[in-house]
UniProtKB/TrEMBL annotation, chain A:
Belongs to the FldB/FldC dehydratase alpha/beta subunit family. Keywords: Iron, Iron-sulfur, Metal-binding, Oxidoreductase. The keyword ATP-binding does not apply. It is an enzyme of class 1 (oxidoreductase). InterPro entries: Benzoyl-CoA_Rdtase_bzd_osu, FldB/FldC_alpha/beta. GO terms for molecular function: benzoyl-CoA reductase activity; iron-sulfur cluster binding; metal ion binding. Its EC number is 1.3.7.8. It comes from Tectimicrobiota bacterium. This is Benzoyl-CoA reductase, bzd-type, subunit O.
From TrEMBL, chain B:
One of its GO terms (molecular function) is iron-sulfur cluster binding. Residues 5-253 form the ATPase BadF/BadG/BcrA/BcrD type domain. CDD domains: ASKHA_NBD_benz_CoA_BzdP. Pfam families: BcrAD_BadFG. This is CoA activase. Its cofactor is [4Fe-4S] cluster. The keyword Glycoprotein does not apply. Keywords: Iron, Iron-sulfur, Metal-binding. It comes from the Bacteria.
Length: 436, 258
């Protein structure tokens, strides 16, 4: 019998800091009005560097991560889902949207107190749910609302006309923000925010790329607590600094051979949002020595990647790294639009083959044994074409397991059956349980 | 070496005793509420049938949803692996295994060694599984055996929602009220399940020979429907198809190292 390699492992030093930053974010949003601040709500893909031009006391509540936080509280989540049902919203709508609306209806904030009313809503539109989500929030809460349509097609086809389409909307949003808040827009703050966002999202991509190492220094369940910061506020300097600290720690772990899971012998990736109430499935996989080293979702929801000089997948160099100094609002808007349009997770909205290709690349570069696809009933945006992805992966010889669930509604998941499916998948990959 | 395979299913516990290539005994008991006790009972019964002592069994393998209840098993495998092993043992040219049990339907692609290449299982809805047939037979007030027989008398195709047992049952009620014959309804139900199962099979890739295992393999109405939906003439139904999982567990136990 082959002896099992046991890698050294240790907890992530900056883990607690990530949790503190996240909690502070939600607290600041709730309390900022007492300090005369402004708060707004929008999706995790909203162009948050723009409202940053209104001042340093502007706070956001990004709706998808907020709904994921609610999912960790089964009682509140059930209350929110029921409230959405009671309003007549169909079960097959985005479950995050239903949760967010539910939290607004029942007037309960997952971090204590009443649901804090945003001063305005600021959103981007690429998934069909995005605009409607905040149209309803704006109507229900009687607040002003602005959406920027970013669905201009694949990045490889983006030309000046398409960039201008996005830039013009962003330009228009600035006087609108000034009007609804009564504040003067500060271009310097905006330029700094754009640079910060490029830094944060590139750094996160770098952290993810480091997980190509064997053994993986991070595993996906842990990464959920880390990637989330970029979904909360991409332009935050504080979060960028945190990612730099994290990157250095991960590099150090690799240099010292520190594994996330000491028994790693099977490397996997998953796809789309996980069923948040059942993250223990990742610990279950570890019983087989199986580690999910990430997913296109965890990596590229906010991480901005590009081809590296050696042809591999890695972080996109930031304008600052390329020696580009942004001087004007116009320059900042153009760079900002271009940066966001290159986001890998936006590409497969146009063609599932793109996602299959990225996943195949990940399989090769991250040295994977297989892929687990979550047929996520809660998200039509990211689940779109997922069976095409399965087919593409299988055709390329990659073992794939699928399971059905819902990121934000635990009623739609059969957990014991999913575990039993993991058992079958592991057996088919030739792995036995290391423990019971 | 004599090996035992024990399949602890949702409704029944099946035991197969295997001596090399020869099956010595097969037994089946109802799972009941005390699963460990029922396992013991089924195992003892199999040993008695084969006329051997417990000590004559070199290895015990367990499978099925309640496989953990077989505390004395040396190997434990999932139903998917056990099905593939059992099917290839009985029919070496089997490459696609269809298993329709009480609560789960599976499409499995296997290689010549009985190793699972790919698999698909129905999600939490039971519409792709045997429990669905039972509930539909009840709605028509016929026995399960009659349900299979009468569907062969129909040559009509009536599309039916196979996604959800509850919706399908209400559709059956509507069909009864619109004076659709029991024969046509029975065929519609079998076609609906077969269409779900064949979607799973196509997902993993249909490769002949196809072997149908599990209790639903006895249902000739379903067998006819699955052949039609898959567009193939030959679907192998082994003798005692419900024992294939237990047999596979015995094969795996025999192949495991000491
Ligand atoms: S991409 Fe998914 S989570 Fe995001 S808005 Fe669309 S459906 Fe909801």
């Amino acid at each position: 019998m082959a002896t099992l390699t046991k890698y050294p492992t240790e907890p992530l030093k900056c883990w607690n800091k990530a949790k503190e930053l996240r909690l502070k974010y939600y607290k600041d949003y709730a309390e900022c009005k007492q300090r005369g601040g402004i708060r707004w709500s929008g999706g995790a893909w909203a162009m948050d560097a723009i409202p940053a031009g209104l001042g340093d006391d502007v706070y956001t509540l990004t709706s998808e991560p907020y709904a994921a936080s609610v999912a960790f509280d089964p009682k509140l989540n059930a209350e929110c889902q029921s409230a959405a049902d009671a309003k007549g919203w169909s079960r097959d709508l985005c479950s995050y949207m239903r949760t967010y609306w539910g939290s607004m209806y029942v007037n309960k904030y997952a971090f204590g107190g009443e649901f804090p009313k945003p001063d305005f809503a600021f959103q981007t539109q690429i998934c069909c749910s995005h605009h409607k989500w905040y149209q309803h929030v704006a109507e229900y809460k009687q607040i002003p609302y602005f959406t920027i349509d970013v669905s201009v097609g694949l990045y490889k086809d983006v030309d000046e006309g398409r960039i201008a389409y996005v830039v013009n909307q962003m330009q228009e949003s600035i006087p609108w923000l000034e009007k609804v808040t009564g504040r003067k827009f500060d271009d310097e703050k905006f330029i700094a925010a754009v640079n910060n966002e490029c830094r944060t999202t590139s750094l996160w991509a770098e952290v993810c790329t480091l997980n190509k190492a064997v053994p993986a220094p991070l595993e996906e369940k842990t990464m959920y607590a880390l990637y989330v910061l970029a979904t909360l506020s991409k332009h935050s300097k504080e979060f960028g600094d945190f990612y730099e600290e994290l990157r250095d720690e991960v590099k150090d772990r690799i240099a010292r051979g520190i594994a996330a899971v000491s028994t790693e012998r099977c490397r996997l990736i998953t796809d789309t949002q996980p069923p948040w109430s059942y993250l223990s499935m990742y610990r279950y996989m570890e019983k087989y020595g199986a580690v999910s080293v990430g997913s296109l979702y965890t990596f590229a929801l906010e991480g901005v990647f590009a081809d590296q000089p050696d042809g591999s997948w890695g972080p996109r160099p930031t304008p600052e790294q390329l020696g580009i100094k942004i001087r004007t609002r116009e320059e900042a808007l153009r760079i900002y639009a271009d940066w966001n349009l290159s986001k890998p997770e936006w590409q497969h909205f146009y063609d599932p083959q793109i996602k299959t290709d990225i996943m195949l690349r990940m399989v090769k570069e991250f040295k994977l044994n297989g892929v687990i696809l979550h047929l996520n009933r809660g998200c039509e945006g990211l689940s779109k074409g997922i069976m095409e992805n399965r087919l593409g992966l299988v055709k390329a010889g990659v073992p794939v397991m699928t399971y059905e669930g819902n990121m934000g509604d635990e009623k739609e998941m059969d957990y014991p059956r999913t575990l039993s499916r993991i058992d079958s998948f592991m057996e088919s990959l030739g792995f036995n349980k290391l423990e019971n | 070496m004599i090996t035992a395979g024990i399949d602890v299913g949702a409704k029944t516990i099946k035991v197969v005793l295997l001596d090399g290539g020869k099956i010595l005994a097969k037994t089946s008991v109802l799972a009941g509420f005390e699963t460990e006790q029922s396992v013991e009972e089924a195992y003892k019964e199999a040993l008695a049938k084969a006329g051997i002592e417990r000590s004559a069994v070199g290895k015990v393998g367990a499978t099925g949803a309640g496989r953990k209840a077989v505390a004395f098993a040396q190997t434990v495998v999932t139903e998917v692996s056990a099905d593939a092993q059992g099917a290839v043992f009985l029919h070496p040219s089997a490459r696609t295994v269809i298993d329709v049990g009480a609560e789960e339907g599976r499409g499995i692609k296997t290689n010549a060694d009985g190793k699972v290449v790919d698999f698909a299982v129905n999600e939490k809805c039971a519409a792709g599984a045997g429990a669905f047939t039972e509930s539909m037979a009840r709605a028509l007030e016929v026995t399960l055996a009659q349900f299979g027989d009468i569907s062969l008398k129909s040559n009509k195709s009536i599309p039916m929602n196979a996604q959800c047992t509850v919706f399908a049952e209400s559709e059956v009620v509507s069909l009864i009220h619109s004076n659709t014959s029991k024969e046509d309804i029975a065929r519609a139900v079998h076609d609906a399940i077969a269409s779900r199962i064949s979607a799973m099979v196509r997902r993993v890739g249909l490769e002949q020979d196809v072997i149908l295992v599990g209790g639903v393999a006895y249902n000739i109405g379903f067998l006819d429907s699955i052949k039609r939906t898959l567009g193939i003439e030959n679907v192998v139904v082994p003798q005692d198809p419900e024992y294939v999982g237990a047999l596979g567990a015995a094969v795996v136990a025999g192949a495991a190292g000491n």
